[in-house]
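User: Teach me something about this protein's shape.
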Amino acid sequence: MAHVRTYRPNVRVGNWREDVTLEEDTLKDFLERKERGELMVQKTGFLKENILKQVSLSVSQGGAVCFGDVVMLVNVSGDNSCSISIDADLTSLGEGPSPAIQAPCGVSGGRSLQPCTRNAFIISSVDGSAEGEPLRFNQSFALRTSSGFAGGLYLTSDHKTFQKCAKKSRLQEVIMEEQANFLSWWKVLHNDPQERLEHEGLPVPANSKVIISHCKTNQALAVLGQHILWTLYGKEYEVTAHTFLDSHKAERDINHWLLLTADSAGAGLTVLDRTQTEQAI
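Assistant: First, the predicted structure itself:
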């Protein structure tokens, strides 16, 4: 009898019933959240699926950018080519059966140059100009995301303060806001300062380097390749409103932007795609 085991290893001791109940409740809660699509991995997948959905850019009419056009804002300075993109994460995703991106929402320089909901902007009038009319140099306008999932938000900036500025560079912040007001007004300037007076009032050409200046602060939109942001979409760059001048008092390449439109000769392609293809050949 000395070698007879009077117990088994799986004998439950202590608050075993509470532990089992807690595990069952945790599993039940997990399955319910999964069924409702509330798990973090499901929300992340839903966000990426919708915000990276391909969109069609407008085809330039007569070579000019017009109100109502859907364009991308692309900087092609050096090896850091990027486009202004919504930096939306799970905190930016609204609630409800048809969630959309909520303001305020950050922006970044996305490395993907494929047109999608995240980087497509609509040239919007702030002075009563009708859709289809050309946008002109020094004319105020707004940059708006598409309605629906992108929320119809406006690219906005304001003077920097101690509490409100770009995270990395501490320069003037650029974000997406819901309301259209003077803080969301921008204007296009010729990239050559010596030719600005001559071009004032002329239509803005599509797919050409220009300066995009904030109306209230007179600071130019810029992308900072030395300030890296790690987002849900990978390695990207900080976007700010700050005019960087060279020794000739002209804006540097990081202030130069293309209002990129679709290539009329290629289905789903941009003029930049065609240029890169021709260079490869």
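Now, about its shape. The chain has four helices and twelve strands. Residues 219 and 242 are 5 Å apart (CA to CA). If you'd like, I can walk through any region in more detail.
User: That's plenty for now, thanks!
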